[in-house]
Structure formats: structure tokens, C-alpha cells
């Protein structure tokens, strides 16, 4: 059974930093795209950042230059380093790992990030 365990969320002031972690169990993460989505009140879920199995990152425009995604396949873990946080970054952040060829798409339970102004 695949499980994703997220950690690192919380409350931070604008301009501050947080690092999210997501550790997967039951899979070999090196075979998967690993990423983070977020869902803010009144908005649609959006992809924040993702990293391919080869290490290529992809970011939504609003976080470029502020957020950094990284992965450690030896630990089956993906990280999201968030800096220069803004109130508009407030959302529930979800870890996602997927492998289209295998038809696998797994989600974490979500973790709250709140940025106060």
C-alpha cells in the first residue's frame, strides 16, 4: 500500500520561509514524477512545482525564483523549499507522485501553509 507522509507546514509571516517534505512508502520513488499542488479557498487546485524522475524541475510562474523543489530518491522524499512567502501562498499543499506509464497517481493528505501579512 502506497502512503505519502507530508510535514513542514504551518504559520509564517510574509517574507518568511518554510520547507515541506513528503516521504513515500510502498514504492520506489525514482520511477515517479514527484510534485506539489495547492488548493486555496475559492480557487482551483494548481500545480506548484514538480520534478521528473530525471531531475528536471517545473514551476508555476507565481513561485519561480522563490520556491525550489528537490528530491532524494534514496529516501523516497520530495521537498519544497518556500522562501519570500506571500499571503497569496496560503493554501493546503498536497504532495503528488505519479507514473503515467504505470497508471499510478498518489496523493498526500494535505498540509496547511498560512502566510500572514
3D structure, described in words:
This protein is mainly beta and 117 residues long. It is 0% helix and 55% strand. It is built from no helices and 11 strands. The strands form 2 sheets. Strands 2, 4, 5, 6, 9, 10 and 11 form a 7-stranded mixed beta sheet that branches. A 4-stranded antiparallel beta sheet has the order 1-3-8-7, with no helix packed on it. The termini are far apart. The relative contact order is 0.31. The mean pLDDT is 96.
Shape: globular
How much strand content do the residues show?
A: over 45%
Alpha carbon gyration radius: 13 Å
SSE sequence, one letter per element: EEEEEEEEEEE
- Average predicted local confidence, pLDDT: 96
Alpha-carbon distance between the two ends? 40 Å
Question: Short description, anyone?
Answer:
By secondary structure, the protein is mainly beta. It is 0% helix and 55% strand. A hairpin with a 5-residue loop joins β5 and β6 (57-59).
Strand-helix topology:
Layout: E1 3-7, E2 10-13, E3 18-25, E4 33-39, E5 46-51, E6 57-59, E7 67-72, E8 77-82, E9 91-99, E10 104-107, E11 111-116
Parallel strand pairs: 2-11
Antiparallel strand pairs: 1-3, 3-8, 4-5, 4-9, 5-6, 7-8, 9-10, 9-11
